[in-house]
Amino acid sequence: MNAGELIEVVLPGKVEPEGLEVRHGSVPAAGPGRVVVRMEATGVSFAEQQMRRGRYYDQPPFPFVPGYDLVGTVAAVGDGVDPDLAGTRVAALLKVGGWASHVVVDAADLVPVPEGIDAAQAETVVVNGITAWQMLHRKARVRAGQTVLVHGANGGVGSVLVQLAQAAGAKVIGTASARHHAALRERDVIPIDYRTEDIPARVRELAPHGVDAVFDHVGGRGLVDSWRLLAPSGTLVSYGSASTRDDDGSKQWPVLKLLGRVWLWNALPNGRHAYFYNVWAGRALNRRRFRARLRTDLTSVFQALHNGKITAQIAAELPLARASEAMRLAESGTVAGKVVLRA
Q1: Which of the four, 154, 219, 221, 300, has the lowest number of CB atoms within 10 Å?
Q2: Beta pairing partners, 93
Q3: Contact 315/128 with Cβ under 8 angstroms?
């Protein structure tokens, strides 16, 4: 790749994956307080899948460059930035903009990546890892000896959640399609086929008194079942509405409906708790606190990866120019883990 050339993938509108456009230009400059990161790995998450349908809650207007996070090397620093940052490997949570060879990022938003971790491995646990860590430890506060239910246990967030929960000493029940069950059993997860089994009945067999936490990215009608499966002091963490992925109509309504249910459930005097998790919560109110918490938590995730407490679940690695193929693969439901784009 030409060091002086910018390559980026643009989402021009509501298109099929093949409608993504690859554009070329000049590498941007780093302004004051900012750096240019030469991307080494970025990924395809559920957010990009929703964005191409125009259904992500607060996506920018088309056209734009998607890419929720990235891992790369600092190529240039702007005024007011420590020059020693140049040449270091870092990670950043962006929401958009990561599907590019070079990305301008606020220096304060960078999190160092420890030596010994490959860029693609680190990429699998940026947005997925921070989401899993904060839901597990800051929301549900899962402890040793507890039992948790993870929906989509083979997915990007789910696979990290499973490992972090087990590292905390919890027993894990996970929903997934049958083709992923053998791999889940190898990880000591009790699998449930969400397509053919009665999930509530099966969970009650395995945990007669209820589970201590449920992590639900599906939403929809199944969210009520997730709430009902909780133990008396259990916690439900909802973090998406995958069941409405292909729906028409308002993109805000599924989220607002989730928030309404969470508010109602928390008002009930039964000792249970419900949360709708948003990785960006608190950023607008106190950016410094948000950045400090993200850096602390993502550093903990990287340390768990470095120590072998969790492993990178890479479904596939493709070059940035094949983003359309990567998107199609990620949406196929046939892979486990994260689809990674490399520079």
Answers
A1: 221
A2: 69
A3: no
Distance CA 112, CA 88 (A): 8
Distance CA 189, CA 162 (A): 8
The single residue listed with the structure tokens 């929301």 is 139
What is this structure's pTM? 0.92
Alpha-carbon gap, residue 100 to 86, rounded angstroms = 19
Is residue 320 within 8 Å of residue 341, measured between CB atoms?
yes
Conformation bin of residue 88: beta by default, left when phi > 0, alpha when psi is -120 to 50 = beta
User: Using omega within 30 degrees of 0 as the cis cutoff, is the peptide bond preceding 83 cis?
Assistant: no
Residue 147 structure tokens:
């039992």
Q: Residue 16 is encoded by which pair of tokens?
A: 């099929």
- At 138 the pLDDT is 97
Query: Which residue, 19, 13, 21, 16, is CA-closest to 100?
Result: 21
pLDDT at 1: 40
* CA dihedral angle for residue 145, residue 212, residue 306, residue 192, rounded to 10 degrees: 100
The one-character DSSP state at 31 is -
**Alpha helices by DSSP H, 191-337:** 199-206, 222-228, 253-267, 287-306, 323-331
What count of residues does the chain have?
343
Q: Whole-number mean pLDDT of the chain?
A: 93
Q: How far apart, in Å, are the Cα atoms of 56 and each of 10, 96, 242, 255? A: 16, 11, 11, 10
- Token pair recorded at residue 101: 């060879």
Please give the C-alpha separations between residue 227 and each of 152, 212, 257, in angstroms, as whole numbers: 17, 11, 15
Q: Please, which residues have CB within 8 angstroms of residue 118's CB and are 6 or more apart in sequence? A: 312
Give dist(CA 129, CA 161) in Å, integer. Answer: 8
Region for 8 from its dihedrals, namely left if φ exceeds 0, alpha if ψ lies in -120 to 50, beta otherwise: beta
Query: Are 312 and 336 spatial neighbours (Cβ–Cβ below 8 Å)?
Result: no
pLDDT digits (tens, 9 = 90+) for 169-205: 999 999 999 999 999 999 999 999 999 999 999 999 9
Three-state DSSP class for residue 64: strand
Q: Which residues contact 62 (CB under 8 A, 6 or more apart)?
A: 11, 12, 13, 14, 54
